[in-house]
Specification:
The protein is of the alpha/beta class. Helix content is 39%, strand content 15%. It has an eight-stranded mixed beta sheet with strand order 1-8-2-7-6-3-5-4, sandwiched between helices. It has a seven-stranded parallel beta sheet with strand order 11-12-10-13-14-9-15, sandwiched between helices. It is globular. This is ATP-dependent RNA helicase DeaD.
């Protein structure tokens, strides 16, 4: 069963997760320098989108990939871009151009290219709005192989004559639907007109609205279409599993995992991570927090793995932190919980992982931690598996305390029902000369509680709000960049005042970019935007208003700190 499929009807020759011999990065024909980087980063095997996209893209083919964040799409195009760089690169002008919607993504993608391309000496420069232009000019002048840019800034630099696109052999449009949603359509067209016709064009997008498809038809030549997660697992395959997800920021993930584990108290759990490094780091963090966690990854010898499995089966360890490769074929009877530390890169991986619990009529639990940007992949998984995944609030400190007291109460009850308590009678009797029996009981409960549950954790984990998915709107919304007025979608919205306007050079795309880059919202969640001379007004979902205000205050608009608050005129 394939979890990627080509929509143009070609059959895929690539292996899927269930194939006997797994596909390695070396099988994809990547050069040594890239393989070395991937090993260093602890990537054990390509994700489905990488298996599908890397070979044809490395061979120079145009590609239209439908894949969301979390699928490994960045490496799916970054590796072939690097693979195609010539060994000798005497010129200073870029050979590849990657266009992305937000500053945050520009930084992330350029960091990824830099890490993968280190041994190739790849020169990667990110350019985006909000950073002073002179610094970007200097970086470009020093010579560059790959430019990662937001469309507005790329166009600015092009018009100033500082960005030369005459040598570009590959153009990648990443999160193309977001770029259109943010009003970058005209900028993209203008940029694509400037790159040589004899180029490779690659487009990745989570959704494929009609307008984007039309754009792809104009600019891509005979593209190979690749789509992640098309097939639905056959009926009856799904085990009995309670599936929940928690949306948390990257920084809050270790604490959130600890909190969820405390409340769930699994008998034995597997926590899945993406890379070897993540496995090692998380195992160390969990042990530091008092859990008995063991690491399992492809970098370990068979003997080491056997020892780890022995400790899990014998109950000396309660948590196994593992990569998919290492956990393949693993069968642990007493497993009660599967935790996805990240949203898996393919729906089938998800199904495969959670299939390890909920066997033989017992109910299993699957928990997924979702970073705001990856929530679309969660939706894809829900759609493909046909089973709802309930997004819950991370337990609060109060929830945890209540749960711990409940555990202590249960332990005391068990002792009252079963243990021989006679030998403690004298202790209680002497104390009751001085104290009330209730007070003696309270002190005893406190001691028992503290002895079994350890110190209370009082770190509150910040909640991240997600907007419900809007129905996919096909076709053109007909918005220009300068003036946009959109419904803002379902639900309440509020207007925010932002203390920078036309005189500071603010354009709608800057505001949408800053919001989408710094919060869990997407471009399309932002409603009407008004830009006045000295200030701007932006409509955002009411539920996310505080998050947007905090994020914008902490960052900058057009390179400057600005006032951000609810618009007093209306709310
Ligand atoms: P993306 O979907 O491109 O945003 O990637 C999501 C995350 O997966 C990033 O943190 C990547 O570093 C990581 N990643 C991408 N490919 C692999 C792989 N083959 N193995 C492990 N981690 C990966």
């Amino acid at each position: 069963m394939a979890d990627t499929g080509r929509v143009d009807g070609e059959t895929s020759g690539q292996a899927t997760e269930h194939d006997e011999q797994a596909v390695t990065f070396a099988d994809l024909g990547l050069r040594e320098e890239l393989l070395a980087a991937l090993t260093r980063l602890g990537y054990e095997e390509p994700t489905p989108i990488q298996r599908e996209a890397v070979p044809p893209m490395a061979a120079g083919r145009d590609l239209l990939g439908q894949a969301a964040t979390g699928t490994g799409k960045t490496a799916a195009y970054a590796l072939p871009v690097l693979q195609r760089l010539p060994d000798e690169r005497p010129g200073g002008d870029p050979l590849a151009l990657v266009l992305v919607p937000t500053r945050e993504l520009a930084i992330q993608v350029s960091e990824a290219l830099h890490r993968y391309g280190r041994d190739l000496g790849a020169r990667v420069v990110p350019v985006y709005g909000g950073q002073p232009i002179p610094r970007q000019l200097r970086a470009l002048e020093a010579g560059v192989d790959v430019v990662v840019a937001t469309p507005g800034r790329a166009l600015d630099l092009l018009q100033r004559g500082s960005l030369h696109l005459g040598g570009v052999a590959t153009v990648v449009l990443d999160e193309a639907d977001e770029m259109l949603d943010m009003g970058f359509a005209e900028d993209l067209e203008a940029l694509l007109d400037e790159v040589p016709e004899e180029r490779q064009t690659v487009l990745f997008s989570a959704t494929m609205p009609r307008r984007l498809d039309a754009m792809a038809r104009r600019h891509l030549r005979d593209p190979l279409r690749i789509q992640v997660a098309r097939e639905v697992p056959t009926e009856g395959e799904a085990p009995r599993v309670r599936q929940t997800a928690f949306v948390v920021s990257r920084a809050a993930k270790p604490a959130a995992l600890g909190r969820v584990l405390d409340v769930e108290s699994p008998t034995a759990a597997i926590v899945f991570c993406r890379t070897r490094d993540e496995v090692d780091d998380l195992t160390e963090t969990l042990n530091g927090r008092g859990y008995r966690a063991e690491a399992l990854h492809g970098g370990m010898s068979q003997e080491q793995r056997d020892r780890v499995m022995g400790r899990l089966r014998g109950g000396t360890a309660e948590l196994l932190v593992a990569t998919d490769v290492a956990a393949r074929g693993l069968d642990v009877e007493q497993l009660t919980h599967v935790v996805n530390y990240d949203v898996p890169a393919a729906a089938e991986t998800y199904v495969h992982r959670i299939g390890r619990v909920g066997r033989a009529g017992r109910e299993g639990v699957a928990i997924t931690l979702v970073e705001p940007r990856a929530h679309r992949m969660l939706k894809t998984i829900e759609r493909v598996t046909g089973a709802p995944i309930k997004v819950e609030r991370v337990p609060t400190v109060a929830d945890l305390r209540a749960r711990r007291l409940e555990l202590t109460r249960a332990a005391l009850r068990e002792s009252l029902l079963g243990d021989d308590l006679e030998r403690f009678r004298a202790v209680v009797e002497t104390l009751t000369d001085e104290f009330d029996v209730m007070e003696v009981a309270l002190a005893a409960v406190k001691l028992a509680h503290e002895a079994t549950t350890g110190p209370d954790d009082d770190e509150e984990i910040p909640e991240v709000t997600l907007r419900p998915e809007r129905p996919q709107r096909d076709g053109d919304r007909g918005q220009g960049r300068a003036l946009r007025s959109r419904s803002g979608g379902s639900g309440d919205s509020v207007r925010l005042f932002i203390g920078a306007g036309r005189s500071a050079g603010v354009r709608p795309g800057d505001l949408v970019g800053a919001i989408a880059g710094e919060t869990g919202l997407r471009g399309r969640d932002v409603g009407a935007i008004e830009i006045a001379e000295r200030f701007s007004l932006v409509e955002v979902p009411a539920a996310a208003a505080e998050e947007v205000i905090a994020a914008l205050k902490a960052s900058s608009v057009k390179g400057k700190k600005v006032t951000v608050r609810r618009d007093k005129g209306r709310d």
